[in-house]
Specification:
By secondary structure, the chain is mainly α. The chain has 22 helices and ten strands. Helix 1 packs across helix 6 and helix 6 packs across helix 9.
């Protein structure tokens, strides 16, 4: 009875975190406050570590709580708190409904792969590269999947509902659209979901115990857990039912041994055992039946796994090629940024790229969708980390939402008044691309949209005016670039590698003489 309670409480808690975190990536109405969102993401392991490094506050010690729980009960994070783990469980449940339930069996650990992925991740971090964190962190992978795959579906459902309600003159819902959607990121997420789904169906939680660096690290910690699952030699009759229900495939019923470093704490074995031979109790040395020598998987299998993974990754990244094709511009000058523009509050390109896990929460939360997943704007090590894409839209002058939702501290909280003076980059004007120069036509779209009036129209020839940029008051919001109608752009924002402080724009007072005797002086 107690074990059933543990299992169903695990299911309930994991579903609550799964639904809440998933909703954060599709919500466009800012339903939750920033504090509530930070509370939901408090226990996400890698984001919590990075946030603690950046702000050193109690609000970022979730990873410490996870470590303590792991030392007590094993990989609680993988079973209760990880949204990607819950997604795998959901895929497993649905796959069982369409096909005959696949029984699991004990498999030896793939130590070369799991410790290899962890070692490569740590080695890359030592050299300042987040590529393996971006591609393997379970929370960030879940964020990519929901942001790129579930969010368009959620928007479509909302827009359909809004259209139907409009027919009855009910305007509770409003239509929303996706601007500048990244098809490369969509492709990566789709391939990723397909790969994880296949692994789940064939091998259960193999991703968690072979690829995921968080799972491997917590598996090492769980070797010292106080409470562990074990097989009671006096009660267990080696029927194999517990092993056939173990999604981690870590129960060796023949030798009555449990590899607890791979156990994800699903509690399936506890409730499936018909003879009460599976125990979850305080660990004692005499109970330790973990195999001391575990055969490694065949060399060919490892090579095939690595080869297939490389082919899949390469195929997804090859989609990026179109982003670098400038095309022929009939003699016009193509836009060449020296530096990529990072969101307000990110301080610098270095700080951002060495703290961001590419979870895409800021991509989902941005109301103008100016924040988009990158391809190679930051180089290969920063693939999929967000950047300011002014072809999609511009940064709202009155918005700081991205700094409020970032769970890692890559985008630090910033006050609105400070944000209005934070110089993300500087607008640069290319006269040869401007319609005023090429076609001798009036335009001024860039100046009209500039919130600080850093882009001003000055007389060019005859009565024509052409843009002029005042760099000191430009904040690099991208409004001018987004509004520019030319291809390639005649005005664009080149990022600042380190964010600067712009000068306050001068406010011109309009003095109007008013005759108090007039009834309507205006």
């Amino acid at each position: 009875m107690v074990f059933r309670f543990l299992k169903w409480s695990r299911v309930a808690v994991s579903l609550i975190f799964f639904l809440l975190i998933g909703f954060l990536f599709v919500d466009f109405g800012n339903v939750f406050s920033a504090n509530f969102m930070n509370g939901i993401l408090f226990f996400q392991f890698i984001p919590s570590i990075l946030k603690f490094i950046n702000i050193v506050a109690l609000a970022a010690v979730g990873f410490v709580v996870v470590l303590v729980l792991t030392l007590l009960f094993g990989r609680v994070y993988c079973s209760y708190l990880c949204p990607l783990g819950t997604l795998q469980d959901i895929i497993r449940v649905f796959s069982n409904r369409f096909k005959k339930r696949k029984r699991f069996r004990y498999r030896p650990p793939k130590n070369v792969l799991r410790y290899g992925f962890l070692g490569l991740t740590l080695l890359a971090l030592l050299f300042g590269s987040f590529i393996f964190i971006n591609l393997l962190d379970p929370y960030s992978l879940f964020g990519k999947i929901v942001s790129n795959l579930a969010r368009p579906i959620y928007y479509t459902i909302n827009n359909t509902g809004a259209w139907i309600l409009e027919k009855f003159e009910v305007y509770t819902l409003f239509k929303v659209g996706l601007k500048g959607y990244s098809w490369a990121s969509f492709g990566y997420s789709l391939v990723l979901l397909g790969l994880i789904g296949w692994l789940v169906y064939k091998y259960g939680r193999l991703y968690c115990n072979t690829v995921c660096p968080v799972g491997t690290f917590l598996g090492i910690v769980s070797r010292f857990s106080l409470f562990r699952i074990r097989l009671d030699e006096t009660m267990c009759d080696s029927c194999g039912i517990c092993g056939s229900n173990c999604k981690a495939q870590c129960i060796d019923t023949k030798n009555k041994a449990v590899d607890f470093s791979r156990c994800v704490g699903c509690m399936n074995c506890l409730t499936a055992c018909p003879s009460s031979g599976v125990k979850f109790s305080l660990f004692h040395k005499r109970y330790d039946k973990t195999p001391k020598t575990i055969p490694l998987e065949p060399v060919g299998a490892r090579r095939n796994f690595i080869k297939n993974s490389a082919l899949i990754t390469g195929g997804v990244l090859s989609i990026a090629g179109e982003a670098f094709s400038e095309g022929l511009n009939d003699g016009k000058i193509p836009v060449k940024r020296e530096y990529t523009v990072t969101p307000p509050g990110s301080l610098s390109i270095r700080h951002f790229t060495q703290t961001c896990t590419a979870c895409h929460l800021c991509v989902s939360a941005c109301p103008t969708h100016v924040i988009q997943p990158s391809l190679f704007q930051y180089g290969i090590s920063g693939v999929l980390q967000p950047f300011m894409d002014f072809n999609a839209h511009f940064c709202n002058f009155e918005c700081t939402l991205c700094s409020e939702v970032c769970p890692t501290g890559a985008i630090l909280p910033i006050e609105l008044e400070e944000k209005k003076l934070t110089q993300l980059g500087i607008s640069k004007f290319i006269k040869e691309n401007c319609v005023v120069y090429t076609d001798e036509k009036d335009c001024g779209a860039c100046s009209e949209h500039c919130p600080t009036k850093a882009v001003n129209m000055v007389f060019y020839k005859d009565r024509l005016k052409i843009p002029e940029v005042t760099k000191e008051i430009c904040i690099g919001c991208g409004a001018c670039e987004y509004a520019c109608p030319t291809t390639p752009k005649s005005i664009y924002v080149d990022g600042n590698p380190i964010h600067k402080l712009a000068e306050k724009p001068k406010v011109e007072k309009i003095e109007t003489e008013v005759n108090p005797e007039d009834d309507f002086p205006f």
